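Subject: complex prediction, re-run

Hi both,

The earlier run crashed halfway through, so I resubmitted it with identical inputs.
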Amino acid sequence: MQQSRIRSIFETLLRHQVRFLVVGGVAAVLRGAPVSTFDVDIVHSTEPENVVRILDVLEDLDARYRFRPELRPGASHLSSPGHQLLITRFGPLDILGNIGNGRRYEDLLPLTDELSVGSDVRVRVLTLEGQIAVKEEVGGEKDVAMLPLLRRTLEESRRGKG
Amino acid sequence: MLRMVLRDMTANGDDGVDLTLIRWMLSLTPEERLEELESFVDFVREARNVNAAEQNSLNFRNIA
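This time it finished cleanly. Structure:
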């Protein structure tokens, strides 16, 4: 069986002990929402030692900017709250300094828990409640369109647990 | 009881969201959900590539 590209990205991040949270479409899927997406979105800690680790990961993944493949992000980009939209040898990867109303890694951490996505591969994933809160904050057309699906998934997931 | 059965058989919520898909996704483990996503994305990519190749060959024939 072909190795999962998304899992390969996670494994590389974990191998380098990067502090990150899975958000966006992949987080929605991992929580049970029937959506599709082509990129992996993560929010990272912008602490200097974490930025150094991410730079090693990006080297391993041969990551480049999607809009300018001749460029690679540097430490200053990864220390900022900005969004780095990259293409790697395992597919698109968005490294986000913040999401929603300026929520950074430390703000989002309480809204996450760990999920297993393979043997020995456990990643911190934004909860459905967290995803809904962020999308409500952003309020963009795409975000608002996703809200009914996320809310229903949350409802069904609670019903299943109840 | 009847109400519960009817609710469980309903495919769409008031907002048009397909509940059967959500229930199916929730019946899978996170690992299986990831596999479903990737197999879907792979299929779309493959279909796109085939279509692009066919389109190119069509354009080439039109030019020739």
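Residues 100 and 137 of chain A are 6 Å apart (CA to CA).

- K.
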